[in-house]
Design a protein that fits this description.
The chain has about 150 residues and is an alpha+beta fold. The chain is built from three helices and seven strands; from the N terminus they run αββββαββαβ.
């Protein structure tokens, strides 16, 4: 599925998204993850730091959704599709570099906001992240526009 350029721009500028998977009990599991790369042809790449519940859920059921909302602009989207799990290896070293750049950008944003007296988390949790454990590659099947119809 082709993803419009404005949607790619929207997701690229989110610090994190909500990733939803389905557990073996049928319940929805949500976790915060950052998108590393999003292609116009509908492929999204996320590096996950832990092989925990999201990993287990995707092993059993590859259905996934990624949701992001910009409260200030009052708009958001949910991308639905199928994911596959891949190893993080040297076949695409630029992917890990892109992830590292995003982490560095988040730390820089936090430092700047803290300097403006907008105190947040002082320890910069991103600097303590482990190396990515695996790669999630999602093929987008559909896009849900979460923006209320009355304000589109």
């Amino acid at each position: 599925m082709q993803i419009p350029q404005d949607l790619i721009y929207f997701f690229r500028h989110q610090n994190f998204t909500i990733v939803s998977t389905i557990g073996k009990d049928g319940g929805v599991h949500n976790s915060c993850k950052g998108i590393v790369r999003i292609d116009q042809d509908g492929r999204i790449y996320l590096l996950d730091l832990y092989k925990a519940r999201t990993f287990a859920n995707l092993k059993q059921n590859p259905h996934i959704s990624i949701t992001a909302v910009d409260e200030h602009k009052f708009k958001g989207y949910c991308l639905k599709g199928i994911a596959k799990i891949e190893e993080v290896d040297d076949s695409d070293p630029d992917l890990v570099k892109e992830w590292e750049q995003k982490i560095l950008s988040r730390i820089t944003q936090r430092v700047l906001r803290n300097m403006k007296e907008e105190k947040g988390h002082l320890r910069h949790p991103e600097s303590q992240f482990p190396k990515p454990a695996y790669l999630i590659v999602m093929e987008v099947d559909s896009v849900v526009d979460l923006t209320p119809t009355a304000i589109k």
